[in-house]
Amino acid sequence: MTNKSMLKMALLAFSLMLAFNFGTYAQKTDCSKTTDTAIVDAIYAKIQAKYKSQMSHINVRIKDGEVTLEGWATAKKVKQDIEKMAKKASCVKKVMNNLTIGVGGGCGPGTKPCGSICIPESEPCNIRGKGD
Fold first, then answer.
1. Considering Cα of 51, then 72, then 80, then 89, what sign does the dihedral take?
2. What is the pLDDT of residues 59-117, one digit of tens each?
3. What is the DSSP letter of 33?
4. Residue 60 to residues 30, 43, 91, 95, Cα–Cα distance (Å)
5. What is the reported pTM?
6. How far apart are CA 59 and CA 114, in angstroms?
7. DSSP state of 48
8. Are 96 and 23 in contact (CB under 8 A)?
9. How far is the C-alpha of 111 from the C-alpha of 105, rounded, in Å?
């Protein structure tokens, strides 16, 4: 065997060992043991870390891994960033971003106040205050 062949074999073996080790350390969250409340809390923690001032007018709901964002954001970039945060949370399958841009108005028929936003009357208000 030539030195080149031996080097190629050694590199191949090393690559396989690395691939096996990385695969071993990759862990997935067991979503069957994760509650909706825990997912909502995780999303709010991400929002609060970057956009604390937005907390009082964003409602996060979840059902069967599908998140709905309601309320308003101060800018399009903030709205998009909050959606990305929700999508990256563990156990989230889908995100429906219903955030509007700018300050919201009064509540219409079939909705109720939730902090400084309006949500469907049948849905829970999960807004976390600025101090939470």
1. positive
2. 999 998 999 999 888 889 999 999 999 999 999 999 999 998 877 656 767 888 887 77
3. G
4. 21, 8, 14, 10
5. 0.63
6. 8
7. H
8. no
9. 12
